[in-house]
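User: Can you help me understand a structure? I only have the sequence.
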Amino acid sequence: MEHSHRFTIVGIPEYISPEDIHVYSIDEVFIDATPYLSTYNCKAKDFAKMLMNVVMDKTGICATAGIGTNLYLAKIAMDIVAKHVPEHIGILTEELYQRLLWKHQPLTDFWNIGRGIAARLAKYGVFDMKGITELPETLLYKEFGINAEFLIDHAWGREPCTMEMIHKYRGKSRSLSNSQILFEDYDVDGARIVMKEMVENLVLELVENNLYAKGISLFIRYSKDCTPSSGGAMKLVQATCSIKKIQAAFSKLYIDKVKIR
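Assistant: Let's start by predicting it. Here is the structure, written out as tokens:
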């Protein structure tokens, strides 16, 4: 059984091989812990505690973790379950997921379900994951197209994508990208700091792969429906992997495009 663990702090490479880590966002990673349970002779929860203690010792920050039998359940275990237990470790199997979270509301607490998707489901009287499993699949595909596949799988607690598949994936595009959803409103300066950290990660990826950037693009979406999304692209003067030059370009694009109220 594959266990995937999601921790809110990145930076414990001495314990985990890079091929067993997938960086999900600036402060979150997925870890395939399966091969390490025998190495450290421990159960999944004990392994999570060990890594969380390392984070606490090194940073003074209390990390949280989600343990699941697939990537999706690991994510939901941390996003929803871990918030309500003293140890800050959520654990889910498909059976537990269906028993504990099928009737959880609001639907927007679940990964990849925003207000728009929730509103479209509400048209059919669906307000929880169990409701999705009870809708005809033909109706879901008609309403959401190919994305219905994700809704159906996640409603049942299934996730076919594995860590191995993520690492083997090679996109046709020659571009690198990073995105992050902020779970509270940031002011202009706060959001700029987050953007700079994301750019730093992208530049590190450029350097590691011996690549150079010829242009950049930035897309900003706001939490208030009354504020339209903004963004744009910029061609660099010359191809570069200089963090100073790329950060400067993103800062200019950010200033030009962000909606300052």
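Now, to help you interpret it: Residues 102 and 130 are 5 Å apart (CA to CA). The first strand starts at residue 4 and ends at 7. Let me know which part you'd like to focus on.
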